[in-house]
Fold this protein.
Amino acid sequence: MRINLLSSFAAGILIATTICGVVYFTDDYPDQKASAKSSQKTQLTKAEMKDQLESAGYVVQTKEELEKTLQAAKDVETKPADKEGKDKPVTQVVVNVADGMTSIDVANVLLQAQLIPDAFKFTQDIEARGLQNALRPGSFTVNSGMSYDQIIATIFTN
């Protein structure tokens, strides 16, 4: 009885697979007709494609136009800042110096605030000026409009 049950199950799988294969490979399948119709469409010209994309909200540029746009953006980025500092907003930072802080700690705070380009060079400059012992506890306000020497004079007192 067990063999009869197994052979019946195998026959059922075989019949279901055959039916699925026949349905799949017949020419009356709707997706094949739709794809045949879509391949018969005429090709659009470049101008028609561009108009359709622009009407859908896309920006269409030629390679030359893109390169000009990118070059113009690079020129704006590399343009020197106005001498009076009108192009760059002023950033104000309060530096809190606590007991035990060193010039390295202050340099790291100024570096995070993007007021100095290099913390190590700042520390070397403080040591060259002999101001490493002139750091006193307190709150000091510096801003990006100050020169390098003004920042040092504000924080390090003689």
